[in-house]
Amino acid sequence: MIRYHVKRNGKSRNTLRYFGAFLFVFGGFLLYLFFAGMASTHVIGAFFGALILLYGGYLFIHTFEEDKYDIEYEFKDQELVVKHRKGETVYTYDQIDDVTLVVPENEMIYSLILIRAGKKKYLIPFSYKKEACDKIYAHLTARVTEKELKEEIDKEAKEELHDTPDSK
After folding, report:
1. 146 pLDDT more than 90
2. Which of 7, 33, 86, 104 has its CA at 20 to 30 Å from residue 69's CA atom?
3. Rounded to a whole number, what is the distance in angstroms from the first to the last CA of the chain?
4. SS (H, E, C) 12-36
5. Taking Cα atoms as reference points, which of 115, 72, 118 lies closest to residue 95?
6. Cα–Cα distance between 135 and 1 in angstroms, integer?
């Protein structure tokens, strides 16, 4: 079993939360000016006020998502366990749709692994930890591609059964 902990910075999360609240209030103030009649001729300003209000609400709401907090990944032989602030989520390797390794120009500085399981996406950053990234990626691809290979072999076997000389 391989464990990897991703630590998220609480200060940046709170900064985005406060900035989103500020934009929400500022956009609401611009809309108030428009609807109160003080800037009733400035329709474009009201439009931008509505956009600012919506974007501020978007920033504020999305700072509460589970990937904005610390996450611990446990890569076991049969399953992937993701422990986050709301509990834990267990995925078998059959449920994982895609594993992608993102390698920048200078791969010694950082690397990323993107795991897609249904509608969920998990982006695992590795700063100055290339060996850990390679080990986890090899572990994941060995188990996820095993499922894909079995499906491909079963598909080819079914095609061979349908393409027998007797059926032509």
Report:
1. no
2. 104
3. 51
4. HHHHHHHHHHHHHHHHHHHHHHHHC
5. 118
6. 11
pTM confidence score: 0.68
At 4 the three-state DSSP class reads: strand
Q: Say if CB 124 and CB 6 are below 8 A apart.
A: yes
* Residue of 10, 21, 6 lying closest to 55 (CA atoms): 21
The alpha helices in 1-112, defined as continuous H runs, are 10-35, 43-62
Burial 107-146, CB ≥16 within 10 A → b, else e: eeebbebebebeeeebebebeeeeeebeebbebbeebbee
C-alpha to C-alpha distance for 81 and 121, rounded to whole angstroms: 14
Mind listing the pLDDT tens digit for each residue in 78-121? 888 889 888 888 888 888 888 888 877 776 778 888 888 888 88
Closest CA to 17 of 57, 67, 77: 57
Tokens (6 digits) for 24: 């929400």
Bridge partner residues of 82 (DSSP) = 73, 89
